[in-house]
Amino acid sequence: MRIYPNFIATLSLAGALSISATLPTAATQTRDRDALQKTLLATTTGDKAAGRAIFDKVCASCHKLGDAGKEIGPDLTTIAATRKRPEIIESLLWPSRVIADQYQPVLIQTKDGDIFSGLVMKENARAVTLVTAEHPETPVEILKSKIQERQKSTVSAMPENLLDAYTPDQIAGLIALLLSGGK
Predict the structure, then answer these.
(1) DSSP secondary structure letter of residue 8
(2) DSSP code of 150?
(3) CATH code at 33-99+168-179
(4) Which residues contact 78 (CB under 8 A, 6 or more apart)?
(5) Which residues partner with 69 through β-bridges?
(6) Rounded to an integer, what distance in angstroms lies between the CA atom of residue 148 and that of residue 89?
(7) Is the torsion defined by CA of 43, 66, 99, 155 positive or negative?
(8) DSSP secondary-structure letter at 149?
(9) How far is CA 142 from each of CA 57, 119, 158, rounded to the nearest angstrom?
(10) What per-residue confidence (pLDDT) applies to 9?
(11) 174 and 65 Cβ atoms separated by less than 8 Å
(12) What one-character DSSP code corresponds to residue 48?
């Protein structure tokens, strides 16, 4: 059995495999996000250059901001027009709390036992094409005749703990960059 999503935990090999059994029951937290959220809410400024470095390294593989990045996840260029600062902070710290319908990942188990997780890029009567977090440049086409089970995932394609390597000041810079539309 091959497993392709980035967030699927270990599977029980005994008995029937249900896709929902592959989801973690609780996100592993390597830092106190509640405290970080309070710090970020209290910080009203940030170094956009530091934010650009984070965006280029971490976010651009899935998100557009101005002319930079890819169009897999939401375009962040105009996020300030639709989301307030506290909502942006929450989305960065807890990406699975609110997932827009058009970015809702799906889990697919094939009759061969392979499990895929990704965003539906294209679908027709014959196949579903997914973009996966592991290989966003190489979409995966799965024939519908080979699908055993398919369901929506409650886990965002944006990984938890994505910003754990960065200081609150650096994250504040990312937030400032997002609020500026990348300018």
Answers:
(1) -
(2) E
(3) 1.10.760.10
(4) 181
(5) 64
(6) 37
(7) negative
(8) E
(9) 30, 13, 22
(10) 32
(11) no
(12) H
Which residue has tokens 């002319």? 67
Identity of the residue numbered 101: D
Q: 3-state DSSP call for residue 53? A: helix
**pLDDT by residue for the chain (183 residues), tens digit each?**
444 444 333 232 223 334 444 444 344 445 789 999 999 999 989 999 999 999 999 999 889 999 999 888 899 999 999 999 999 999 999 999 999 988 999 999 999 999 999 999 999 999 999 998 777 789 999 999 999 999 999 999 888 889 999 999 999 999 999 999 988
Judging by DSSP bridges, how do beta strands 127-131 and 115-123 pair with one another? antiparallel
Joined tokens for residue 105: 């990942």
HSE (side-chain half, CA atoms, 13 Å) at 120:
16
d(CA 183, CA 181) in angstroms, rounded, equals 6
Between 2.50.20.10, 3.40.50.300, 2.30.30.100, 3.90.280.10, what CATH number should domain 103-152 receive? 2.30.30.100
How many Cβ atoms are within 10 Å of 124's Cβ, its own excluded?
Answer: 8
Pairing of strands 147-152, 140-143: unpaired
The structural domains of the chain, with segments of one domain joined by +, span 33-99+168-179, 103-152
pLDDT at 2 (0 to 100): 46
Q: What amino acid occupies position 141?
A: E
